[in-house]
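Colleagues,

For the teaching module next term, I've prepared a clean inverse folding example: a structure given as tokens, and then the sequence designed for it. I'd like students to try predicting residues themselves before seeing the answer, so please don't circulate the second half yet.
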């Protein structure tokens, strides 16, 4: 009977070790990938997670006290590493960019985001490794384009990333870039694409405030699903800005976006035409049939890459044609040789069109 119990215990321990090792396989593989890509913080996070998953079974499996003590020590170090990487930093403004402000529609100051010690570039590169097609990888020069945007000498410093935090918590967050002059300025409410409110686009759009006297607000809405709830969030951000900043020209408020954010901007404009003077759609248009009568009297800019593999350029052409049929003022800007990331690869030409629209009398 004693031998049978011992055999059952050994079998249970072996099963626990096998199960924990299987669960640890994914973070181990991700950790190895992060090591190959040079993503130190994510490498530490995944490896610490793998160690923490295996530790309980390893503790039960080993009969030697010294090994158990070592396992407990490794588990403690792993737990501390994970906590240090994911828990909010108290000083979120350290080495951050003051020209791109972190704001919230909720009462009080913005809460420190979780995962903010993980560089946003690491998140972008890992996500791009899995999420980009071969054509998009070529367009972004094997992800090097993102490295250039985040690490360029003339680039704005990065604020703590809110991307991973926004997947878990709704803090009413948005990025805001205001002109330095106190003169009345137009406002562009710009919606981010799928994945989250990465600072690559805010870094580009902040130039509108610095060089062209345009206020730019970029709401954060989780993964970027700008359906009814997302549209309501964008309007909440608009109201918050108008309440705080009297220098916004209420006759020149525009909504825009990129990719899924562009689709959300068009839908928001369609549902609330009285709130906006125009819409800017970059690399994204709705695929469904929709009424365009609400766009009468509005200014519309549609920018689309000819080689966009995610949203076919034919959809953008069709929407521009329908708007013109209803005598809507449309500036259709098609970029030969550009794909879905046209705003990153053709910054100057696209921003010139955006500025022209925003500065219409």
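(Answer key — instructors only)
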């Amino acid at each position: 009977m004693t031998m049978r119990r011992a055999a059952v215990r050994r079998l249970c321990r072996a099963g626990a070790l096998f199960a924990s090792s299987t669960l640890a396989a994914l973070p181990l593989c991700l950790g190895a990938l992060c090591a190959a890509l040079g993503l130190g913080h994510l490498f530490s996070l995944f490896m610490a997670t793998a160690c923490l998953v295996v530790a309980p079974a390893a503790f039960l499996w080993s009969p030697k006290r010294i090994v158990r003590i070592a396992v407990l020590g490794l588990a403690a170090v792993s737990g501390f590493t994970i906590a240090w990487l994911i828990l909010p930093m108290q000083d979120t403004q350290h080495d951050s960019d003051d020209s791109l402000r972190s704001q919230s529609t909720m009462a009080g100051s913005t809460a420190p985001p979780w995962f903010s010690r993980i560089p946003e570039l690491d998140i972008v590169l890992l996500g791009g490794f899995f999420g980009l097609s071969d054509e998009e990888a070529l367009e972004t020069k094997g992800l090097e384009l993102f490295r250039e945007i985040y690490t360029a000498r003339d680039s704005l410093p990065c604020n703590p990333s809110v991307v991973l935090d926004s997947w878990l918590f709704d803090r009413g967050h948005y990025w805001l870039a205001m002109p330095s002059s106190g003169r009345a300025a137009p406002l562009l409410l710009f919606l981010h694409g799928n994945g989250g409110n990465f600072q690559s686009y805010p870094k580009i759009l902040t130039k509108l405030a610095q060089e062209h006297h345009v206020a730019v607000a970029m709401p954060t809405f989780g993964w970027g699903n700008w359906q009814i709830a997302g549209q309501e969030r964008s309007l909440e951000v608009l109201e918050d800005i108008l309440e705080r900043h009297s220098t916004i020209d209420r006759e020149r408020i525009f909504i825009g976006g990129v990719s899924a954010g562009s689709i959300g901007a068009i839908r928001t404009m369609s549902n609330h035409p009285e709130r906006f003077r125009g819409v800017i759609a970059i690399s994204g248009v709705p695929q469904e049939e929709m009424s365009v009568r609400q766009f009468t009297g509005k200014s519309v800019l549609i920018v689309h890459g000819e080689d966009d593999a995610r949203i076919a350029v034919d959809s953008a052409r069709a929407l521009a044609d329908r708007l013109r049929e209803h005598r809507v003022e449309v500036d259709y800007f098609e970029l030969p040789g550009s794909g879905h990331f046209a705003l990153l690869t053709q910054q100057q030409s696209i921003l010139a069109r955006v500025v022209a629209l925003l500065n219409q009398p």
